[in-house]
Amino acid sequence: MTLQEIEVPVLVVGGGGCGLASSLFLSRQGVTSLLIERHPAPGRLPKARYISQRTMELLRQFEVADRVYERSMPLEHISHIRWCTTLAGDGELDRRTFYRIESFGGGSLAHYAKDSPCESTLFPQVRMEPLLRELASAQKQAQVLYNHQLVSFEQDEGGVTAVVQDRATEKEIRVRARYLIGADGGKTVGPAVGVKIEGQTDLAHMVTVYFRADLSKYWDDDYSMTTWFVNPEGGSWASGVLGQLGPTKFGRHSEEWMFHFSFRPDDPSRFEEASLLPRMRELLKIPDLQPDIIGIGHWTVEGVLADRYRWGRVLLAGDAAHRHPPTTGLGLNSAIQDAHNLAWKVAAVIKGQAPDSLLDSYEAERRPVAASNVQWALMTFQNHQLTDAGIGLVRGNAEASVANFRRYFADNQEGRTRRARLAQIMEVQRMEWQAHDIELGYHYDIGAVMPDGTPTPERDPLGQTYVPTTRPGHRLPHAWLERNAKKISTLDLVRPGNFVLITGHGKSGWAEAAGALAKTSGVSIDVVEVSDDADVRDIDRNWRNLREVSADGAILVRPDQHVGWRSMGRRGDPRAVLAAALGRILRRDLVNAT
Questions:
Q1: What pLDDT, on the 0 to 100 scale, is given for residue 233?
Q2: Is residue 562 part of a domain?
Q3: Which position among 172, 285, 359, 583 has the lowest Cβ density within 10 Å, counted as fewest Cβ atoms?
């Protein structure tokens, strides 16, 4: 039987957040792709739900951010995290709050708004994936096929040949692609190429109950994204974690919720789903709770990393390359950031703007970031043991725990001391809920960058304080500018698929050099002069304070909004200097080509 054959530049395997983002980012940069997903539709469980500022910046670049904000939970409703005893009940220790901490740029964390044009938000994966599928499917250069699975593939020097099966008809399709992106969570592509997954596994078995219910009579905090219940019979994870999900009402009026339970990996009761609702009623102290259960999911907490991201023509991204504990919310955000980094490089190679070797920089840049994120999430996961101890929980001794809880809430000197002690311990928890530098400050020391010899700014060991810099490899700092009487961010200067050269005035020679280089190299380079006499003006002088180069200098920003090169001032022949820099980034000889 002759198989139907499809030829496409890129085959994306996996229709989760990473795969769909890859399809969308590629098509918006003029690259045709085929995405296949073995399931007939996006998943029905909320999974990840926190979307960071940085991820929203990437979606803003591709004109998706507003679509997310229209449907997502506003920042004010995710501005706190709290630890409580129960949600209802009238006992001595019922409905008591141990602690509340600000989170994700909400409340008084005004520095988040200073550093980005975007707010963090809550948009569960159960809603993000359908939106990304809708947007990706609408692109002329993208084909999205659900209910199609990868049967096999092989690669040669010129590309990948894959056999894909339509699960509804069982018909097979032969797909010839120059590159294959494995975004399938590590289920098929990674094992097929021999990837080794390294790290800590089976840390806990989690069960998530996704349900609808009216909890407005009991939920007394409209601004807490998540409530951790600390029960004398177990820790905060073992007791349960309740989070609001919206989708159209928020706070106490949220229509949908998710409840996490934690079990030991070897606990046989983890699969006894009939016991979950009675346990929820007991923990919440709502004996007549009758939720509409939408779904129940099982998942394992682990912190693992693939030994390699690239296997010839096969590239791994998202959960296929790294998986984190849910703490700090790095999973989906890292996956979309993988797709963003990889898409512009694949596009440059497909268009002939760069050789295949540019794709080696994907692993060089993203794997160290993932390694750091995995370790960070593991640390913040382990921090919850400190929280439980600070509250006074004694595992396996309910009597002692109850006594400690009474002492904690007592209106006396000991109670005040215990509460002050917990406040000190909770300073450590800021690593999880206020990881501003972890979210914005990641950078690339090696890869598609031309270093300038300046030292890396010292990073906050607790991951909170972000230091903006235009040093090569770092994200372009945000500052508000004005263009045609419209307020824009410096990040808005970077169009999908294009480099941008930011200069201080038109007499430096950089603009002419960029124009000539664009013609000879075939690389799109936008030139933006930021000055009082130009179309783009530094209205608040914030950019002048952040740029770290003189008015005679220049900053070359890559299509993914990371600085690729900079010059502190005018240097020799601008055309030769710029050609050397862009050539170093793209791994081409552009000096002799000019």
A1: 67
A2: yes
A3: 172
